[in-house]
């Protein structure tokens, strides 16, 4: 604790969460005259936009992950702490972990969001979502196990249910999942089985609203639907799920109810803020919206606490157009970088204009070398859009880890319809360590005389 | 069961195990006029020689695995069955699975070997070995968690124990593990931590005999020891482990005993035949050797049962030079291919010369772009050997799955000392499905009038 005895100890920035919001805040503070502590319960950053590729056996978890320590190894002012934050003490300016207390001058909460089953939490088991590596492994297990079970099933009805995949929610994740499963069933696995014809697989993509990919232009979402249909996906809009039970999913279309026998139901519908939102409400009185996202000020701080910021999927930022910004990587990234800039301004006694999100557009991969790209004036579809999608993702992957070859290989596998990461693993698999055992030793000693914010 | 009602139903070959022995037997029978059923409890073949790369975070499990179905998808006479064999009925010529019975005319048992702790089975927990993907994930977890714990440890003694890695056994696996951990500690992780200096890591490689890599020439094993020492590995020959308890490993060197505080002990010493060996002994009376390997006849069949063969690590074949052949991939591969050839000869009423293993030499990767290669007259060391090692492995990987880019990337990572597959996962992780649930439906109906062996 040598350093902590010196005067003018640098300003202590604590970041909770190593996703896009937290990681890019930390990266942007690498050269600043502050100490940064990034806390995460995992030892790696996850490139979530490609998670569906893990779920469908095209990539391995490590292909879309990078160790937080190695991403930040060059940031000498930054410490990575593995652990889970249980509580926040906004009076004493401390975050409380299972085994220690870490003081902060400025706190950035970037713990993201989890799935929402709209109150039907019993669906969580029968219709897994896709947020974590475990989720992806679980989806991969269910998808490939369904084909294995079908291969061994002789009852035609049961076999049909095993070969029926229902994806709930037609946002980017739902669309990309549906496309990937179609590729899998109608191309990749065609020759692998002896008793079943995988081309009999039924893939339903359900959307509550009247069109898929509502966040992109109507023309392009129409294009996307066309490509999906060509791939063999059955797209059903204006369709709500009313029940999932005993391998039967009940749909409501208008006033009509419909029952479909499906062994595999995948959830790509709603999200809700992570538990840290509730903690902030209890400890600071800040409001959350109906989906548990923290309502933030124009500068991403929370009401009454100028030194506590919320960024990424956990934040509800509605100061731009009345609507909360979408829970996508670019928003989290820009929010994290904004807060990093604001902190440095404040330390210089300056201020910074309110946060403004610059929308660089939207992409969605559909499959069969086809995608849709909606970037203001530029609207691409089909193969050109797919190549663009690929380049963008390669670019972002390189940013934190040289995964170029991974992406090239993936592209190659994709063109050749090869999916070799098809390991079937158990449900419990890949539960990541939270490090209680390795961290239950000493407590963190608070630093003294830390330079306060002149905000 | 249409087919089974026809006359002259082809000869039924059942293979238990999709490792090198079983897989290459199946591949060699692809064009034969037989039905092949390959049974494995996993849905993939594992390229075990590179497993240590997974254990040290350089490759992902899927990088060294290939789905059995896709490897054999072109073999139209071959069926892949996911399931675990519980028993064999050599009278009725059936293998018994949890959920069904599969009849055979010829049976090939290729279930491999597991670790032997020389009776000290309580060491299994404290000193994991490296045979399965789970083993590799567990080693990876322990290795990277040890560094994480050390980073958080303030007690110098505890920290030293956390930064001490002991590898028991200096065969190829032990040597390659030691080299990879040295790379990790002294190069890859150098800049990643803030509180510890990973160059203080102590890596001990213990060998009972008087030299490492006893299966290669003395000169080369000396070379290997030199390279390891240069890397920073402490090699201790003529050293036996007498106890592992409470993070203390007790060694016996001559008459001296020595205690070393080490949090991470990795087992690369003995192996023993898998459980199927015992089953064969009970059901056929065939003898096993002291390490549980089935003693096979010159044609790899078992005494008194010309239609039951044992290949790979489970087989003890001592007809070549009195010594049992080593448990390495090339032996298993050649044995599997021999049995496939013998079966076809027999069906033509012919016989085949006894099995003879062709030793193409030995390789071991040491690390720091260095390896040793011992191929009869050719003896390589250092970088040239490393490149050779790489090419050989690329060649074998391509054989069953185009993993070229994976290997190129791995080579690149290796040269740049990058190790990005450093996900820390829980102990229980990656327990592979055994498919009881998906297979407990119908029973396999035996085929009739199958053409008998004219052996």
From TrEMBL, chains A, B:
Keywords in alphabetical order: FAD, Flavoprotein, Membrane, NAD, Oxidoreductase, Transit peptide, Transmembrane, Transmembrane helix
Residue intervals of the External alternative NADH-ubiquinone oxidoreductase-like C-terminal domain: 361-418
Cited InterPro entries: FAD/NAD-bd_sf, FAD/NAD-binding_dom, NDH-2, NDH2-like_C
UniProt cross-references to SUPFAM superfamilies, sorted A to Z: FAD/NAD(P)-binding domain (SSF51905)
Gene3D superfamilies: 3.50.50.100
Catalytic activity: a quinone + NADH + H(+) = a quinol + NAD(+)
Top-level enzyme category: oxidoreductase
Enzyme nomenclature, EC number: 1.6.5.9
Residue ranges annotated for the FAD/NAD(P)-binding domain, each copy included: 12-336
Superkingdom field: Bacteria
Keyword Cytoplasm among UniProt keywords: no
Residues annotated as transmembrane: 386-412
Single Gene Ontology MF annotation: NADH dehydrogenase (quinone) (non-electrogenic) activity
Family: Belongs to the NADH dehydrogenase family.
Protein name: NADH:ubiquinone reductase (non-electrogenic)
């Amino acid at each position: 604790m040598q350093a902590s005895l010196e005067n003018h100890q640098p300003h202590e920035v604590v970041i909770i969460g190593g996703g896009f919001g937290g990681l890019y805040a930390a990266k942007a503070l690498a050269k600043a005259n502050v100490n940064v502590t990034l806390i995460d319960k995992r030892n790696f950053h996850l490139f979530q936009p490609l998670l569906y590729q893990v779920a469908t056996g095209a990539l391995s978890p490590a292909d879309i992950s990078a160790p937080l320590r190695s991403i930040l190894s060059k940031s000498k002012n930054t410490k990575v702490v593995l652990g889970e934050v249980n509580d926040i003490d906004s009076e004493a300016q401390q975050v409380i972990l299972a085994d220690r207390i870490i003081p902060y001058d400025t706190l950035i909460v970037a713990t993201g969001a989890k799935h929402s089953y709209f109150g039907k939490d019993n669906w969580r088991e029968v219709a897994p979502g896709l947020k974590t590596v475990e989720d992806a492994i679980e989806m991969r297990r269910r998808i490939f196990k369904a084909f294995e079970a079908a291969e061994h099933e002789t009852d035609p009805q049961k076999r049909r249910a095993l070969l029926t995949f229902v994806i709930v929610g037609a946002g980017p994740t739902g669309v990309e999942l549906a496309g990937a499963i179609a590729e899998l069933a109608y191309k990749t696995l065609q020759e692998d089985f002896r008793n079943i014809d995988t081309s009999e697989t039924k893939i339903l993509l359900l959307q509550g609203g009247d069109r898929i990919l509502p966040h992109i232009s109507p023309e392009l979402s129409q294009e996307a639907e066309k490509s999906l249909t060509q791939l063999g996906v059955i797209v059903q809009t204006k369709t709500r799920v009313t029940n999932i039970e005993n391998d039967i999913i009940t749909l409501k279309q208008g006033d009509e109810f419909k029952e479909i026998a499906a062994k595999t139901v995948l959830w790509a519908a709603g999200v809700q803020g992570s538990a840290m939102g509730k903690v902030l409400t209890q400890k600071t009185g800040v409001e959350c919206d109906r989906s548990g996202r923290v309502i933030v000020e124009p500068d991403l701080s929370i009401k009454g606490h100028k030194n506590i910021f919320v960024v990424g999927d956990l934040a509800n930022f509605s100061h731009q157009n009345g609507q909360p910004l979408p829970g996508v990587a670019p928003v989290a990234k820009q929010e994290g970088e904004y807060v990093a800039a604001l902190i440095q301004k404040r330390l210089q006694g300056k201020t910074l204009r309110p946060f403004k999100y610059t929308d660089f557009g939207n992409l969605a991969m559909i499959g069969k070398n086809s995608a849709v790209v909606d970037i203001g004036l530029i609207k691409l579809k089909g193969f050109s859009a797919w190549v663009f999608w690929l380049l963008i993702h390669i670019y972002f992957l390189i940013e934190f880890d040289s995964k170029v070859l991974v992406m090239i290989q993936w592209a190659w596998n994709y063109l050749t319809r090869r999916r070799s990461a098809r390991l079937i693993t158990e449900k419990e698999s890949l539960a990541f360590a939270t490090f209680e055992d390795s961290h239950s030793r000493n407590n963190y000693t608070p630093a003294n005389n830390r330079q306060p914010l002149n905000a």
